[in-house]
Amino acid sequence: MNNRFQILITFAAIALFAITFGAFIVQAQPSERAVPEAASYKAVLGKSLDDTDVAGFIASNCTQPGSFRYCGAAGLALWVDANQTVRLVYLYLNDTEDIVAYKGELPFGLAPTDTMADVEYKLGGPVDVQAPQAGWKPGLPDEGYSRNLTYYWAIYERFGMTVIYNTPAANDKDATIHAIVVTE
Questions:
Q1: Could you tell me which residues come within 8 angstroms of residue 114 by beta carbon, excluding any fewer than 6 positions away?
Q2: What is the pLDDT of residues 144-164, one digit of tens each?
Q3: What is the C-alpha separation between 140 and 154, in angstroms, rounded?
Q4: What does the alpha-carbon distance between residue 27 and residue 111 come to, in Å, rounded to a whole number?
Q5: How far apart are the C-alpha atoms of 137 and 139, rounded to whole Å?
Q6: How far is 40 from 74, CA to CA, in rounded Å?
Q7: Residue 171's CB: how many other CB atoms inside 10 A?
């Protein structure tokens, strides 16, 4: 009987140990659906690849070394100049097969669902506050073009930004933003 009692105590101790520490092990495992924290383009733009934060971001999110770093998990791509400084960040605003949509804050208060009319309003300003005909002047691009029959590129040099719309037409005010390119 003493032998059975020792076996019972051993099994009880193993069960108690498994229940107590098994919960910690289960809790420590990351969820498969965990969404990575949104990376900010501001954290890398204009910084050297030697910067600790930039190097860490690139090592965990981007493709192999070169002048163009594709960071699909973060929803952006980086262009690095000859001095190994990030000079341009391309923000993808739509999920694709290889890339997730950029989840960070967009420049100048823009939103992924903004139309061309919304963007021009947000980048505009008052015409003349003192005049009786005071109104709002739309923030038209400094330059614009369609490289192909799919997208219209509105270049805002004064803001260091290019907004790429999902239309080739410069006058389609209902077109939405496809991507944003931010330069230093």
A1: 122, 176, 177
A2: 999 788 999 999 999 999 999
A3: 8
A4: 35
A5: 6
A6: 9
A7: 8
With 0-12 CB in 10 A as exposed, 13-18 as middle and 19+ as buried, what is 41?
buried
Alpha helices per DSSP H over 73-165: 116-122
Cα–Cα distance measured from residue 31 to residue 176, given in angstroms and rounded to the nearest whole number: 33
Which architecture does CATH list for 41-183? Sandwich (2.60)
Tell me if the pTM is above 0.70: yes
130-168 burial: b if 16+ Cβ within 10 Å, else e:
eeeeeeeeebebeeeeeeeeebbbbbbeebebbbbbbbb
Domains of the chain by residue range: 41-183
Q: 156: which 2 tokens? A: 């805002």
